[in-house]
Amino acid sequence: MTQPTPRPTPEPAPSVEELEAQERRLVFRQFTYDDAWALGSLLVEVARERSAPVAIDIHRAGQQLFHAARPGATPDNDAWIARKRRVVERYGASSYLVGSRFRAKGTTFEDSSRLDPDTYAAHGGSFPVRVENVGVVGAVTVSGLPQLQDHLLVVEALERFLKV
User: Fold this and answer.
1) Do 109 and 99 meet the contact criterion of CB atoms below 8 Å apart?
2) Does residue 143 form part of some domain?
3) How far is it, in rounded angstroms, from Cα 104 to Cα 91?
4) What's the total number of domains in the chain?
5) Helix residue spans in 26-140 (DSSP H)
6) Which 8-state DSSP code applies to residue 163?
7) What pLDDT digit, counting tens, does each position of 104-121 carry?
8) DSSP state, residue 28
9) Across 39-49, average pLDDT
10) Is 6 a domain residue?
11) What percent of the chain has pLDDT over 90?
């Protein structure tokens, strides 16, 4: 009798406190057009290394500064990007953190936010672009993987970019 192949253990979801600590740590001194290009290009490279079928988007002050799609990404990923980015713009926190805060209260974003789920999605993958002494100026967003993996991909790229 052959042994079944073990399934990988899913990565545990970070706590609200861990997510908040990420946001305090991942802060820019400035965020220029060149920074958006370099960060977006880094995200493309990380996604390419993993053959991740994602779309990547960076917005600042309502303007799209970077967009790329990897093989396997679909137009639906762009719709998810817009919905997740709107959560960051409204709450000033990552889309995954916002959803986690609702779950920590025993509810869901969809049930309790009173926002249209066709417009807003508190699913992982959009992270605030926060500048020291300024605040949130934009968002970097990935869509195409399960929500925790989208979130972790963005965090990893930000850590590499900011060298923290």
Assistant:
1) yes
2) yes
3) 16
4) 1
5) 33-49, 75-91, 95-104, 109-112
6) T
7) 999 999 999 999 999 999
8) B
9) 98
10) no
11) 93
Q: Could you give the CA distance from residue 64 to residue 61 in angstroms, rounded to a whole number?
A: 9
In a domain, 61, yes or no: yes
8 Å CB contact between 122 and 151: no
Beta strands 55-60 and 135-143 are antiparallel
pLDDT at 8: 54
Split at pLDDT 50, 70, 90, the class of 12 is: confident
Convert the pLDDT of each residue in 62-88 to its tens digit.
999 999 999 999 999 999 999 999 999
CA atoms of 78 and 140, how far apart (whole Å): 13
The tens digit of pLDDT for each residue in 140-156 reads 999 999 999 999 999 99
**68 closest CA partner among 77, 78, 81, 57:** 57
DSSP 8-state assignment for residue 113: S
The CATH number assigned to the domain holding 98 equals: 3.30.450.150
Domain that holds residue 46: 16-162
Nearest to residue 152, comparing CAs of 9, 12, 6? 12
* 10 is a domain residue: no
Query: Can you tell me the distance from the alpha carbon of 24 to that of 38, in angstroms, rounded to the nearest whole number?
Result: 21
Structure tokens at 110: 């969809």
